[in-house]
Known about the structure:
Pfam families: Methyltransf_28. Its EC number is 2.1.1.320. The chain is α/β, with parallel strands linked by helices. The chain has a single domain (3-436), classed as Rossmann fold (3-Layer(aba) Sandwich). Helices cover 36% and strands 21% of the residues. Helix 5 (99-115) crosses helix 6 (133-142). Bound molecules: S-adenosylmethionine (SAM). S-adenosylmethionine binds next to helix 3 and helix 4.
Amino acid sequence: MSRTAFRSTLDRAIRRSSRGIAPSACRYQSTSTSSSSSVPAVKDNELAKVIRDTIRATGPIPLSRYMQFCLSHPIHGYYQKSDVFGEKGDFITSPEISQIFGELVAIWFLTRWMEVDSPTRVRIVELGPGRGTLMDDILRTLFNFPGITSAIKSIHLVENSEYLRKVQNDKISRRIEDKEVELSWNTGINEIPEADDTYTLFVAHEFFDAMPINTFEKTDMGWREVQVDNDPMHGNGLSTQTSKSGLRLSISPSPTALSTVLPASSPRFAKLSTGSRIEVSQDSFKIMRRIGELLGKGKGGCGVVVDYGGDRSYGQSFRAFKGHKIVDVFDDPGNADLTANVDFAYLRESLAGTGTSALGPISQASFLLSLGLQPRLRKLIDSASTEERKEDIRKSAQRLIDPLGMGGQYQVMGISSGEMTEEIYPFISPKKESKVLKP
Ligand SMILES: C[S@@+](CC[C@H](N)C(=O)[O-])C[C@H]1O[C@@H](n2cnc3c(N)ncnc32)[C@H](O)[C@@H]1O
C-alpha cells in the first residue's frame, strides 16, 4: 500500500478530543539518576528475604529468576501492585502520552487487513496491555470502519497482573459494550488458541523489555553466567558497598546449564570478543516464535512490536526504575521496575521457518510520521478549544517523534504472514525511507 492510500485512510478515521499528556519519564532512559545512597533505606523488604533464603538453600540464581521474582511474584511482584504508570507511578509509555500512537497502529492494521482482501473473521492479540489504553485507542479507531468492525470477533490480552487485568477490563469493556466481541485474558502466549479461519492482529508495546534476561560473559575458558548471589558483607556493619537488599552479581566459576545453551542460540554471539557480555532473553525468543507460528498459519495475520533497543545484542542494559529515576537493580526488589533493551535481531531470528516475515525494525519516528502523524496532529489541534490544550497536544506528539528521545530510541518491528515478496509500508529500506521522512 502506498503512502497516499495510508493518508486517505487516515483522513476518514476518528474524530475525538485528545486525552492530554502527563509530563513523566519513559523507561528507555531516566531524566535523572539516583545513587544507592539517595534511595530511602528499605526496611524489611520481604521479597529480598525470600530471594536471600532461596540463594542460601540452592546457591546463586540466574538473573532471569531474580527478574521473575521481582516483576511477577504473586504477592510482592512489581506489576501486582497499584498503578506503576503515569506521573504518580514509575514511568510513562507512548500510548499514555498521546492517542495518536494507538490510532496510527490501528491504521496500519486496517491497511494490512484490506491488503489481504478483508477477511471476515479478525481477532486482536496484545501482550502486556498495561492500563489498556493502547487497545482502547486501537478499537476506537477501527470502529470507525464498519467492515473491520463487524469482522472483529475477539480480543485476547496476555497479562499476568490481576490488578492490571481489572484496569484493562474497566476500559475495554466499555469500548465494546455494544459490539459482539469476546474479551479474554491469558497468562501466557501458549494459551492463545490457534484459529485457522481468523486473521490475527498482534501488538506488543513495551512488553519484551520486561521479559527476564540472562547475562553471560565471554572468558578465555568460554561463556560464564552472571548470577545473583548473597553478598557476604551484608549486615556486618562494615561495608559501605553492599546493596540494601544484600544481593549482588557474581560470575559463575564453571559452566552452567544456561551458559552452555543460550550463548549458542544465535550465530551473532560467537563473533564477540573475550570480555564481552550478552543479555539473552530466552522467554522473548519463545514468545515471539509462538506469535510467528500463530500468524504463519491459516488466514495469517500481522503485528507490531514496539520497544527500546535495536537490531543487535546488548551487554549491560539491565536497569531498574523507581519514581522516574534509575536506581540500583538490587535496592528494593519488587518495588522497582526492572527492564533491559530488546535485541530485535534475536526476535527476528526466532521467526525462522514459521511462515512469517519480520519487517524492519524502523524508528518510532519513521513509523509514526510515515503513517500520517502530522495531518492527524493538525486535525486534533484544530479541534482543541483552548491555546493551552493545543500546545499540550502538539508537545505530546512531538515527544513521540523526537529523534533524540522516544522517536529515535524506540524501534518498531513489523511481522506479517507469508514470504515477503515486496516491501510493506512503512517498513521500507533506509534509502527510500529517507526520501519520505524528515523527523
Ligand atoms: C511496561 S508495561 C507496558 C504496558 C503497556 N503495553 C504500555 O505500553 O503502556 C509491561 C506490561 O506487561 C505485563 N507483563 C510483564 N511481564 C509479564 C508476563 N511475564 N506475562 C504477562 N504479562 C506481563 C505487565 O503487567 C504490563 O502490563
